[in-house]
UniProtKB/TrEMBL annotation:
CDD domains named among the record's database cross-references: DHPS-like_MBL-fold
Name of the protein in its database record: Metallo-beta-lactamase superfamily protein
Annotated spans, Disordered: 301-321
Signal peptide: none
């Protein structure tokens, strides 16, 4: 079981969506800090002279860009999870391509030297959407650039010996692709293990559940497929070293990262969401689950996280009364091309799990976001590029209403 963290900060470096203008939902002001907003970018811009006055200049090139994929930095200023004075940092996937990751990481002023682990969800490169069935996204196209940038940042900080570990599933296909009629369409190759090592990383291959950062984060094993409507990635294929293409609709190497945050959530937010249970001080706020594309199904992923415990390198069923509450589910929900029945079934079962917050991004699609807001008002949070969410057992500062598009005075 992952340790209880004092706090967790989540920064979205890559996502399909960019929104630098909308404020956070009113029920969540104080729990989200959008460093990528126009208000915060404006505050941090350089001074120039316009006429006889010194003013700040907002440059459009300071704004992040959306990209088709996902990269979530469980850190800001090197402070992902904190236990006492110990601060650890991991990166969940690296997005579709190198330029996008580098651009956004720099614009968000991310503290790269503090990243010690890059966790890879599945090996999938690039994206296609065919006849409402096929969606494949790139989660690690920015991998090699990210490794090099982290190593350079560590060198500049004098911490080159810290290194960076890439945590991956060992079952890596030579190529992935999909069936289109009678034809197989191949995707580009993922960065190989040798290339990751050459870029400066240490590759750690794990197929079993395990923890990262000395027990602060838990990486799942294979996620059981239980619901009837979460059927994987229709038409997916893989090519292994034997040179034969085979069906791979389950994407069995898909994994999720979970962590647990100490304490009760701030009373002001709880009062606005009376249907939610109060957090148990012993259990903390509950589980925060981060998922890549949820090919295993976001409900399957959440249920598995809720009832599984890390014990002796195995995921065992929790005993009665020991199941963890779900506090937040962050990442791709794999519903952008699903039919209405699957969307509604997903939202119905998510509601039964009673999460405090839902943060659908990347491949989730607009329909599930609307359905979540209708079914569970006030629990939807944006996963747009530049969004930074802070989960902690303390009251957080609210946004400055005098500054347009600002959700916090923090920087």
């Amino acid at each position: 079981m992952a340790l209880l963290l004092d706090s967790l900060e989540v920064t979205v470096i890559i996502d399909n969506e960019l929104d630098v203008m909308s404020p956070p939902p009113p029920t969540t002001v104080g729990s989200i800090i959008s460093h990528g907003s126009l208000g915060n970018i404006s505050r941090e811009s350089a001074h120039v002279y316009r006429g006889n006055e010194e003013v700040r200049e907002l440059k459009m090139e300071s704004i992040c860009c959306a990209a088709h994929g996902l990269s979530i930095l469980l850190t800001d200023s090197g402070q992902t999870g904190t236990i006492g004075n110990e601060k650890r940092s991991i990166l969940f996937d690296t997005g579709p391509e190198e330029d996008a990751w580098e651009r956004n990481a720099k614009r968000l002023a991310s503290f790269l030297a503090g990243i010690e682990i890059i966790q890879v969800a599945p090996f999938i490169y690039y994206l296609y959407t065919i006849n409402q069935y096929m969606t494949m996204a790139n989660f690690i196209g920015g991998m090699l650039r990210a490794i090099r940038m982290i190593k350079e940042a560590q060198g500049a900080q004098g911490t080159s010996n810290a290194g960076v570990v890439v945590d991956v599933h060992p079952s890596r296909p030579k190529y992935r692709g999909f069936q289109l009629g009678e034809e197989i369409i191949s995707l580009q190759a993922d960065p190989g293990f040798d290339a990751m090592t050459a870029a400066g990383a240490t590759v750690s291959k794990n197929s079993q559940p395990h923890t990262l950062a000395d027990g602060m984060f838990h990486v799942s094993g294979m996620i059981p497929r239980e619901t009837e409507y979460e059927t994987g990635l229709k038409g997916a294929m893989r090519l292994d070293d034997d040179g034969k293409w085979e069906k791979d609709e389950e994407i069995a190497d898909e994994r999720a990262v979970t962590c647990r945050v100490r304490g009760e959530y701030n009373d002001r937010l709880y009062n606005k969401l009376q249907t939610l249970p109060r957090a148990d001080k012993e259990k903390g706020l509950g589980l925060i689950a981060v998922t890549g594309c949820s090919h295993a199904g976001v409900v399957n992923t959440a249920r598995h996280a809720k009832r599984s415990q890390q014990q002796g390198g195995k995921e065992d069923e929790a005993k009665e009364g020991q199941e963890e509450d779900i506090f937040a589910i962050i990442g791709g929900y794999h519903l952008a091309t699903s039919d209405e029945a699957a969307v509604h079934a997903t939202v119905h079962d998510l509601k039964a799990l009673n999460p405090h917050f839902l943060v659908p991004g990347h491949c989730s699609g607009w329909r599930v976001k609307m359905a979540i807001e209708n079914a569970m008002p006030g629990r939807l949070l944006p996963c747009s590029v530049g969004a930074k969410l802070t989960f902690a057992d303390q009251a957080l500062s609210v946004g400055d209403p005098s500054v347009p598009c600002s959700s916090s005075t923090n920087s």
